[in-house]
Design a protein that fits this description.
Blueprint: E1 6-11, E2 16-21, H1 43-47, E3 62-68, H2 70-78, E4 86-90, E5 95-101, H3 105-112, E6 118-122, H4 124-139
Antiparallel strand pairs: 1-2, 3-5, 3-6, 4-5
Length: about 140
């Protein structure tokens, strides 16, 4: 994702799938355990509901509604953020999009890249996350 390679594996200590960016792995310790073939991680299932690679255990997709300035909406129409993306309505003032995705760091970062051309309508958890990022950034310029 995003020009990086990630190593996915089963974290026995926490009983979950975990990932690490390969360029950040500094060392490893071989285990004296027999290899167990992966039957838990199905990439097509794991990634289908999200942008990026970050997913909390048990997290389910949210219906994300975005209001976008028409001049930037054309970009989203021709280069969707996710395969579930749909245009809900269009007017001279705004285009409303819907997508069903996991809310994660990668999605937040991508949405922030649209600046004031995009407004999160729902879910509230995403609205708050975006607002907090903007507030934190703005505080650094005061």
């Amino acid at each position: 994702y995003n020009q990086r390679w990630f190593l996915f594996g089963y974290d026995e200590a926490n009983s979950r799938i975990d990932n690490s960016p390969i360029d950040r792995i500094l060392s490893f310790i071989p285990l004296c355990k027999p290899f167990v073939e992966n039957t838990l991680f199905i990439p097509e299932e794991y990634f289908k509901d999200m942008v990026g690679v970050t997913r909390k255990e048990g997290q389910v997709p949210d219906n994300v509604m975005l209001k976008v300035n028409p001049t930037r909406a054309d970009y989203l129409i021709t280069k969707p953020l996710h395969h579930s993306q749909k245009v809900i309505s269009k007017s001279e003032k705004e285009v409303l999009f819907s997508l069903d995705v996991i809310v994660n760091k990668e999605l937040i970062s991508l949405l922030l890249s649209f600046g004031s051309d995009l407004t999160i309508i729902q879910p509230d958890i995403l609205r708050v996350a975006i607002k907090n990022e903007y507030d934190s950034s703005l505080a650094k310029y005061q």
